[in-house]
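Bit of a strange request maybe. I'm writing a small parser for structure token strings and I need a real example to test against, not something I typed by hand. Could someone generate the tokens for this chain?
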Amino acid sequence: DEITGHFSPVVYGVATRALPFALTGMLSGLSPLKLATKLGSLPSIEDRIVIQGDTDLVKKLDGQGTVVFAPTHSSNLDSVIMGYTIYRLGLPPVTYGAGLNLFSNSVIGFFMRNLGAYTVDRRKTDPLYRELLKEYAGITLEFGNNNLFFPGWTRCRSNLIETKLKKGLLGTTVSAYLHNLQHGKSRPRIFVIPCTI
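Reply from user aminoacidic:
Good idea to test on real output. This should exercise your parser:
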């Protein structure tokens, strides 16, 4: 129960309508009062988040199997920005691990709990906890849920594709793929898409 996430289509619908305004505010650096008076004159979030790369290939791969996005990690907004980018690409929502500290804010925590996030407590080093975390991520992949893993597990200031990766959760793609093959799944393949933010 401590790890598992939840997904609410109703909350997802609300979030996808409200997120462009919220992201515009968060990325503007204005106080709430100034934001309310200047919202119409700020650049739209579509202008501020530029999606580049072979997006048609990513959409094609999504139709052929499960997609795992593996972006660099530079801020606490990365999950939100990636989620919005995935939504703009017309892809289904993803399951993702989020640090326990991000759930402490009641508003942000509510949305994260209902948008597919599961908690990751980095302070816990117990092998059983780590194995359960990996098992949970692997099962979501076996059920065909697209995922988002930050394989560097720490902040990347260069925003280049990372070369030193922690294979923990990312390594679950291999075992999930093997289980998919063993169980004769119709779309067993799992595609890892490296990305930068």
